[in-house]
Design goal:
With 348 residues, this protein is of the alpha/beta class. Helices cover 51% and strands 11% of the residues. It has two domains: 4-182, Rossmann fold (3-Layer(aba) Sandwich); 185-331, N-(1-d-carboxylethyl)-l-norvaline Dehydrogenase, domain 2. The chain has helices spanning 13-24, 36-45, 49-52, 67-71, 86-93, 118-125, 143-146, 161-171, 184-206, 211-231, 242-253, 258-267, 272-279, 284-298, 304-314, 319-327, 336-341; strands at residues 4-9, 27-32, 61-64, 76-79, 102-105, 135-138, 152-157, 176-181. The protein has an eight-stranded mixed beta sheet, sandwiched between helices. Strand 4 (76-79), helix 5 (86-93) and strand 5 (102-105) form a beta-alpha-beta unit. The structure holds nicotinamide-adenine-dinucleotide and SN-glycerol-3-phosphate.
């Protein structure tokens, strides 16, 4: 059987997870690695040790440190680099990405310097592509479970329905269920912002708080995500879907989560630099906290959890003090819109 060709850029944990899905879906996959040593390891041992441990990669996956070789003839291209590296990686890829390719990104974050979403960065760096066909993939999906073919659901969004359906078509299989969604902004913003709340949930667990605190963080965190997301142009319903609640739940409750684990170590009193060093993998929530804090000011949206986490991460505030601040704020309604909706019915 002649296999269709897909390229996955770059070869971290999620890149490896998605390469495995594509290999299972009858693609010959080329995985772009940052170093020749990593490509050699993958090709020789069928393992990507640093990122997916002992998981044995499909024979259909080949690694290369050459961007040209990775992208040559690829009808499907997946960008999965950390958000801070997306522009550089896309620029490097530009000469080799076919104009006809289905281009999907699965990165959760904003460009730190510009606060731009990843489809914006890709549209700027790949000007020969139709921007309405750029697809974002998001949702509750830890690579550790995807490589073991455990049931997982995700969402793909694009302005162009046909492009979203093409992405759905190449990725869906019996253990990887892919839904389409028209809300590119909502899906990208939801996927990025949940990492902040996951850091907070880890911090809460590291401090020894209980399930009540975590449920509060999830619920009030979702309110913040939806407020900023809607101000940026996302649709409220997206935040109650896979790219909102779904991803928030998995990232705040799973020990696979890099963001939760980083928060947990911070909660145990470890300094941020040391935590990031220990993790060895990207913890998107740290840079995203800085961006979301700035966006909350720009859009004049109240984001108290993000604000307190920002103080803890970047201004040396003690986590206990941040919790005291959150719990001791002035009294408010749970939801202003709901209070307004019931306005006539309150007994005054
Ligand atoms: N790991 C998961 O389960 C998972 C699931 C869904 C989404 N994501 C998202 O996918 C993205 C990637 O996460 P990950 O967990 O695979 O990260 P990772 O740390 O496992 O891997 C990152 C990869 O990017 C490469 N890289 C880092 N900096 C680079 C640079 N400057 N230039 C080129 N390459 C560079 C690294 O070599 C590595 O191959 C993140 O936005 C993350 O939020 C991850
Ligand atoms: O491991 P994390 O915290 O980077 O989260 C990975 C995915 O976004 C979970 O859906």
């Amino acid at each position: 059987m002649s296999l269709r060709k897909a390229a996955v850029i770059t070869a971290g944990s999620w890149g490896t997870g998605l390469a495995s899905v594509l290999a299972d879906n009858d693609f010959a996959v080329t995985l772009y690695t940052r170093t020749q040593a990593q490509a050699d390891e993958i090709n020789d041992s069928r393992r990507n040790g640093k990122y997916t441990g002992d998981f044995v990669l499909s024979e259909r996956i080949t690694a290369t440190a050459s961007m040209e070789e990775a992208l040559s003839g690829a009808g499907v291209v997946l960008f999965v680099s950390p958000s801070h590296a997306m522009r550089q990686v896309a620029r490097q890829a530009r000469p080799y990405v076919l104009a006809s390719a289905t281009v999907i990104h699965a990165t959760k974050g904003f460009e730190p310097e510009t606060m731009k979403r990843m489809t914006t960065v890709l549209a700027e760096e790949l000007p020969h592509l139709d921007p309405s066909r750029l697809v974002v993939l998001s949702g509750p999906s830890h690579a550790e479970e995807v490589v073991q073919r455990r049931p997982t659901t995700v969402v793909v969004a694009a302005d162009c329905l046909e492009a979203a359906e093409q992405a759905q078509d190449v990725l869906i299989n019996p253990y990887f269920r892919v839904y389409t969604n028209p809300d590119v902004i909502g899906v990208e913003v939801g996927g990025a912002l949940k990492n902040i709340i996951a850091l907070g949930a880890g911090l809460s667990d590291g401090l020894g708080f209980g399930d009540n605190a975590k449920a509060a963080l999830l619920t009030r965190g979702l309110a913040e995500i939806a407020r900023l997301g809607a101000s940026m142009g996302g649709h409220a319903l997206t935040f109650s879907g896979l790219a909102g609640v779904g991803d928030l739940v998995v990232t705040c409750t799973s020990q696979h989560s890099r963001n939760w684990r980083a928060g947990y170590l911070l909660g145990q009193g470890r300094p941020l630099d040391e935590v990031l060093e220990t993790m060895g993998m990207v913890v998107e929530g740290v840079k995203t906290t800085k961006t979301a804090y700035a966006l909350s000011k720009q859009y004049e949206v109240s984001m108290p959890i993000t604000e307190q986490l920002h103080e803890v991460l970047f201004a040396g505030k003690e986590p206990q003090q941040a919790v005291g601040h959150l719990m001791g704020r002035g009294r408010t309604h749970e939801n202003e819109e709901l209070a307004d909706a019931f306005g006539g019915k309150w007994i005054l």
